[in-house]
Amino acid sequence: MTRMAYEVADEPVEDDEVGRKPGGGRTTALLSLLTLSFLAWAALPIVELDVERYTVALTALTPYAVVAGAVLVLLATALRRWLNVLFALLATAALIYTVAPRALPDQVSAEGEPLRVLSVNAYFGRADAATIVDEVRTRRVDVLSLQELTPEIVAGLERAGLFAELPNRVLHAGPNADGTGIVSRYPLRELALVPRTTLAQPSALVDVPVGRDVEFVAVHPLYPMGADTAGIWAHDLVALPEPSPSGQPRVMAGDFNATLDHTRLKDLIGRGYLDAGASVGAGLTPTWPARWTAPPVTIDHVLSSGGVRAEDYEVVDIPGSDHRAVFTTLRVAG
C-alpha cells in the first residue's frame, strides 16, 4: 500500500497544479510585446506625437484602440499574466474616459434661432450634384460648405438648381481638391479669417435675418497621409482662427482631415469651440470613407463658438463622394 502511494505521488502533474502560467516564456514575451505596442498606441493622443503620417493614422484610430485594449485584457487574464492585465486595463480605462463622452449628449439645451448647416466633400467634383441639391431642399439648409469644389461641379450644381435655393455664394473653385466654397440662403460678406493655406479655406459673415450674424469658415486642410504632407496639414489646421474674443458667433464646417484625438484639432476645440457631433452624442459616427476601403473614422466636423450650439446632427450619404456629408441644426443664441 505504501509503495502504491509512492508511485502515485511520483507521477508528473500538470502546470496548473503547481501554479505555472500557461504557455511558458515565449507566450509571456509575445504578450509583453503586444502590451507595449498597445501602450504606445494608447499614449499617442496624450504625448501628441501625430507629426508624421503613420502616427497621424494611428491617432485617427484611437477609438479602435479601446476595443483592442479590451481584447488584450481578456487575453492576458486568460493567460494569467497579471502585470499585463494591469497595464492594459489602466490604458483602456484612460481611453474610455477620453472617447466615451463623444457618444453621450451634453446636458445643455440649445436655444436661439436655427441655422441649418450642411457640409459636403465633393471628392474632386465627382459628387452627385442633384443629390446635394435635393438634400439642401429637403433639409431646408441655410448654409452649405463645399470642399473639393471644382468648376465642373459648380456648373452641375447650378444646373440642378442650387443657386435658386441658396442664392448667395463665396466660391473659391479650383482643380482637384483645391477649391472650397460657401453657399447661403442669407446674404454673405466675404471675410479673411484664415490666412492663405494650401487648399482654399474661405470665410464669410452670414447676415442672419433674425438674431446675431454668424461668421462662417469652410474648412479643408491638406490631406496628411502623403509622404511629406503631415507638416503642411498641421500648419493648415493651426491657421484656423480661435473663437472670437468678442463672443461673435462663429461656425467652422468641413473636412478637417482630423479626428477629435489629433493634437491640432484638440487644441482648437480646447480654446472654446464645440463639436456638433460630440455635443449631441454622435461624435463617434464615422464620416470617411463612405465605402469600406479603410477603417471608418470621423474627420468631417462642424465646430461652433460664441453661443452657437448643436440641436441635432446626422451624417448623409452622397453618391460619388468618398465622404459622408454632415448635417446639423445649430441654434444661435441672441
Automatic annotation (TrEMBL):
Boundaries of every Endonuclease/exonuclease/phosphatase domain copy: 118-323
UniProt keyword annotation of Transmembrane present: yes
Residue ranges with Acidic residues bias: 8-17
Keywords: Endonuclease, Exonuclease, Hydrolase, Membrane, Nuclease, Transmembrane, Transmembrane helix
Gene3D superfamilies linked: Endonuclease/exonuclease/phosphatase (3.60.10.10)
Origin: domain of life: Bacteria
InterPro entries the record matches: Endo/exonu/phosph_ase_sf, Endo/exonuclease/phosphatase
Entry keyword annotation includes Transmembrane: yes
Protein name, as recorded: Endonuclease/exonuclease/phosphatase (EEP) superfamily protein YafD
Organism: Saccharopolyspora dendranthemae
Lineage: Bacteria, Bacillati, Actinomycetota, Actinomycetes, Pseudonocardiales
